[in-house]
Design a protein that fits this description.
Blueprint: H1 2-13, H2 15-18, E1 27-28, E2 35-41, H3 61-71, E3 76-81, H4 97-114, E4 118-119, H5 130-137, E5 143-144, E6 160-165, E7 168-176, H6 183-186, H7 192-205, E8 215-222, H8 225-234, E9 240-243, E10 254-256, E11 259-262, E12 270-277, E13 286-291, H9 304-326, H10 339-343, H11 347-353, H12 361-367, H13 374-377, E14 397-399, H14 407-422, H15 433-449, E15 452-455, H16 461-464, H17 482-496, E16 506-508, E17 514-517, H18 519-529, H19 532-535
Helix pairs in contact: 4-5, 4-9, 14-15
Amino acid sequence: MKRSLLLVPLLFLTQACTNLFDSNSYVVKGLDKDKLSIVYTHNLTGETHPCGCRHFPLGGLPQVAGKLNELKKTSDVIFVDVGDSFFPTIQVPKEQKESQILNANELSYALSEIGLNFHVPGDYDLAPGIEEYKKIVANKKYVVLVSNLKDENLFPHKKWALIEKGPHKIALIGLVNPAIYPSATASFFTDPKVALKEILKEAEAKGVKSNDPFSRVIVFSHSGMDFDEQLAKDFPNIDWIAGAHTQNFTTHPQQEGNTKIVQVLSKNHYLGNITIALDASKDKDSYSIIEVREELSKLLDPNPWTAWIDQHRTKINQIKEREMQLVTKSTGVEPFMSARSCLDCHGEQAQKWMSTPHSLAYITLLNAKEQNNPSCIGCHSLGFQSPQGFSNMDDIVHFKDVEADKKAAHMEEYLKELKQSFGKIASVRKLDHTQILKHAKKWQGLEDKFKVQDNYMNVQCLNCHSFAADHPFDDKSKRLDRQAALDGMKAKCLNCHSAEQAPEWYIKKENGLPGALDEKLFQKNIKAVGCPLMAK
């Protein structure tokens, strides 16, 4: 019943889109405004919503739906995905196959309902094999757009589409470069330039003329920037190339002869918008970048995708939890010492650590329902997928004096109290040091209550420091000198506080993207969380 209620506004939202494309011809129809926004995205890599780590989260399907809804008030909208959207890697790990395929299917459904019109298959999209891909794109409201598919019957698709309104004729062409695909899937495609020549002839026969100020050729290319630059040189009658794969962020079009080349970044953090004035010639066309900020979700009210994300996240989390339980634990090495092992001897350092967001880092995952997401766990815990740490989520906490057959129930009760105690914390970062220390001490009390021996949740001592397993009885002469130790810590910091996850740590380049590390800010931040000795 809940699903049916959710679909009612979605069907209303996408009613215009279902009339937009005539499946029996190449002609896009149903345009009635004097402005056309061709909005494109690419390299979503399976992301439906922000993970919650960034200070200012970007991306998310509710936010995209909100922005598209706003654009449609003043403009007709064609929404295009240029590929690499359904999977995060070129191969699907066996131990994550169930969750990744379900996520891909749900993302495909969501994009279809939000208003996606065209999808170009990227190399990541074909990660689980062609048969799975066919299932993912089957029976959707969007059209697969690719002009150089070798077998025309491999899956339903269009080589190109034509937009017609008044004197305007706009050819939309999907193209992929098989050279960037693995050999198993590259064989599905023909030479893209040979295919493009034929499509341009077809388009010209339908009235798309290179010397006509009202004709445009727009290529959606999953090929990489180098290929796109050469394509523009080889085919100077292309007006726009909206590319993907290499994720070259172009805040302004890169001009190559008469051709404008554009790309955005991954995960729906930004959308590209080619705006075409249908009451003017093509020299009035413009381009803009849309930053997909959190507040954009409010532009669609009510926004059904907010509830959909919650349902989706719960469903995926249940499967990931099951997958994690199947991962076997490595043996034969000394495990990491958790922070609990350090607190007794290092009292001053312990107090400092317990007053920093690092000591509650796992709460961010727990409250975002991402505690079983392998791409998130490593930066919110100690030793994930390390022989000295844990791979199975059942082993993230070790208890004392708990019988093996009672451990699962004991762990379940521990997690239940953890959620009850800290589930209302909206943002760990927004807590002051006094509040964080209060929560950390409360957590220590829970560990005493549940007889916790080691807990690998949170960012703790050995996320930064490197000590031998027999510390403090190890050979001190073999320890790193202070500068070498600091350099090692810096590398560990930046592994998680990367340009993508912590852009505020980096100096902005001209295009607005993070560039080099802001060294002064880094030193300030590391002192803010560092041990008292480091802060001196």
